[in-house]
Amino acid sequence: MSGRFGRGLVLFLVGILGLAGSVRAATVTVTGTGDTVAVDGSVTLREAITSINGAANVNADVVAVGAYGTSDTIAFNIAGAGPHTILVGATALPAIVRTVVIDAYTQPGSSVNTLDVGDDAVLNIVLQGTTAGIHGFDVRAGGEDTVIRGFVMQRHFFAFQIAANGVAVTGNFIGTDRAGTSSDATTANNLGVNIQNGNFGAVVIGGSIPADRNIISGNGAGIIINSQLPNRVWGNYIGVDATGAADLGNAGVGIAIGTLGVTLIGGGSIGGPTTVAGQGLGNVISGNGFRGIQIQTGGPPTVIGAVTIQGNILGLDANGANALPNTGANIYLFDNNLPVTGLPSLGPVTIGGSVPGAGNILAAGGHGVFALAAGTILRGNRIGTDITGTVARPNTFGVEITGTTAFVSSATFGGSGANEGNLISGNQSDAVRLFLATGTFQGNRIGVSSTGTPLGNGGYGIFVDSGQAEIGGSMAGQGNVIANNGDTGVQVRIGFPAVRNASEAAILGNSIFGNGLLGINNSLPDVVTANDPGDGDAGPNDLQNFPVVTTATLGAGNVTLSGTLDSLASSTFRLEFFSNSSCDALGFGEGATFLGSVDVTTNGSGLGSFGPVVFAIPAGQPVITATATNPANHTSEFSSCVTATGGPPPLPSLSIGSASANEGNAGTTPFFFTVTLSAASATPVTVAYQTADGSATTADADYLATSGTLTFPAGTLSQTITVDVQGDLTVEPNETFTVTLSAPSGATLGVPQGTGTVVNDDSAGPPPAAEIPTLSTWGVLAMIGLLALAGVARRGRQEPASSR
């Protein structure tokens, strides 16, 4: 063997051995149900964990297959059909301080869950505590990336205590019997999973496939998270049994988040896709004795990072059909820093999302959502209904956002995107309550089903009390539907004057109809607030005066409106107009279909007028109402109803102007004829036009014949016709041609013809012959003779060339 070849072979063997060493792994198999470390012919779970921790067999009973390394496994092969119960005695199992996979599904006869809805896992290893205060599995620093799966966990203080990064708890029944269908004092844990406070994270409880689902039910509480780094809880049943159909609630909260950290509950980002709520990524969190999800800071200086809650079912069974209530709020957010410092320390908390399947089902609870927090975002959720959005599964209140004396609580409801609006319907009382808080509402459906049929809330649609709200907007997709609610559609009042003696809402572009009382109410009790001269009164929404519609005329699918506004002097207001099939019983409002808006500026006396303005109107909705929004974005109640009547409204008229310009010496010069409408139209207007000869003719190439159709888009007041005139050097008088309008559609003809005057700009040249003095024939001959004599004399004075 040559030296070079030998050295190469040595290096190759060293590389192979190094590679083998990098993937060392040992498997220790548990063969007995005891809880001792003793040479007794069987391997206990305590012996297996001790061996893994020490990277060495703890005694002669333990025979590791493979070399201890960085990816060790504890497997199970206990004799007999099972199930097999391991009783943990007075001393807790050793804390796990090295990475290990503890897989109880390796016990013969065990199998993972295969169902999308329900859980058919067969678990044959039961780990049961016997002494108060003893934890089940305790994973600490050094046990990073440990996986524990396939256990029935019973009677522990904490079934899982986790204080290490990357730990995964999957496919376990925690707090139930082996079938996952019942729980009592012999099975319940004090707490299912506790992720301790510390600088670690990426803990995963559950997973994205059915085999990863944990049943965490029947315990004192389900999951508590106090970790500083990102963690994820997904695909679990928390508070329901293994069928997903029966209440098996934890006595307290389903999930509680208490201190620092970024957490994802259900589907969404942090590396995962989003699926239909209740299947795959979302959790079912129902039947719990206190709250479904609770996120609460501990007061200064505690801070909780961003939390995202997506694709979950709370308060219903796993099919999203029948009520399995969480006793309190389905989602409860409370920032204890706000009452103390006035500064937010929680979130933002995002409930739902902008893509299909990201929304949660929040039903049958005390509140769908209760929040004393800043920056809460709710998008795409169904609050108060089943998963289809067509059947009421009422919460007492849909959503309540409550502030403090610092007035900092805030929330965003929905958005203008296709999947962003929330469905908040079928609740027993108010759909949304803002107390000393701010809220932005766009694209939501409040009081209707997912198919648009009535599914009202028992109280107010939106209740703003000493708060601020933006309800709808002026852009596409921002308007909300607020309908069929038992009380007022939007109620604005000042209930906490000592804290904040104001309450405001900009209510723009919405569809508000069918509510039990007023569509919009800026006072209590539920009566119309009359207009006052000059609008000098104060109160919710400044008690802004509403417009008065004086005329409303139907015709050709349009309505033509005129009216007045009496309000603050020298100010500009946005007036919005609505149509309805009938008037509210109180004679004011509501506003089922938003027709459009105009701006009106009042004079120095506070008086303004509008109209005639024309809007397209749906068939069968002749009842017209209006609102006014002042420069501070405070909206009035609906005006009194006016029923539009009569034949066709007056059409705007079309008129064409004239044009005049120099013709030029060459090429063409454009002549511009402006055509104007007397008033804007809500629908497009068209008119034909045609040039005709006058003293200027196309035959003489004075101009180019032009014809066509002019179109005025809705709202446009003027358009231009261009005719090209030919330039020349011909001296001629000014000439004319005409442009005539005809066959208008959507308008009448006012001034139908314009004149084009071609101004001559060519110079006259030499004077005409008549202006040159004339000579007689004899005079001409005399001049010729004189010229001849002059030539003879000039030659006589010259010397011959030869004499020089």
Could you please describe the fold and organization of this structure?
- The chain has a 15-stranded parallel beta sheet, with helices on one face. The chain has a 14-stranded parallel beta sheet with strand order 3-5-8-11-14-17-20-23-26-29-32-35-38-41, with no helix packed on it.
- The protein is built from four helices and 58 strands.
- By secondary structure, the protein is mainly β.
- The protein is 7% helix and 35% strand.
Distance between the termini: 129 Å
Strands in their spatial order, largest beta sheet: 1-2-4-7-10-13-16-19-22-25-28-31-34-37-40
Coarse structural class: mainly beta
Categorize the overall geometry: elongated
* Mean pLDDT figure: 89
Concise summary:
By secondary structure, this protein is mostly beta strands.
Write out key terms for the chains shown.
disordered N terminus, 14-stranded parallel beta sheet, disordered C terminus
Which secondary structure elements does this structure contain, and how are they paired or packed?
Layout: H1 3-22, E1 27-30, H2 45-54, E2 72-76, E3 84-88, E4 100-103, E5 125-129, E6 137-139, E7 147-149, E8 151-154, E9 158-162, E10 168-170, E11 173-174, E12 191-198, E13 204-206, E14 215-216, E15 221-227, E16 231-234, E17 237-238, E18 255-257, E19 263-266, E20 284-285, E21 293-296, E22 307-310, E23 313-314, E24 331-334, H3 337-341, E25 349-352, E26 361-362, E27 367-372, E28 376-379, E29 382-383, E30 397-402, E31 409-414, E32 423-424, E33 432-435, E34 437-442, E35 445-446, E36 462-465, E37 468-472, E38 481-483, E39 490-493, E40 504-508, E41 511-513, E42 520-521, E43 548-555, E44 558-566, E45 572-580, E46 593-601, E47 607-616, E48 623-629, E49 642-643, E50 653-656, E51 659-662, E52 668-677, E53 685-693, E54 707-712, E55 718-726, E56 735-745, E57 748-751, E58 753-759, H4 777-796
Parallel strand pairs: 1-2, 2-4, 3-5, 4-7, 5-8, 6-9, 7-10, 8-11, 9-12, 10-13, 11-14, 12-15, 13-16, 14-17, 15-18, 16-19, 17-20, 18-21, 19-22, 20-23, 21-24, 22-25, 23-26, 24-27, 25-28, 26-29, 27-30, 28-31, 29-32, 30-33, 31-34, 32-35, 33-36, 34-37, 35-38, 36-39, 37-40, 38-41, 39-42, 50-57, ...
Antiparallel strand pairs: 43-44, 44-47, 45-46, 45-48, 48-49, 50-52, 52-55, 53-54, 53-56, 56-58
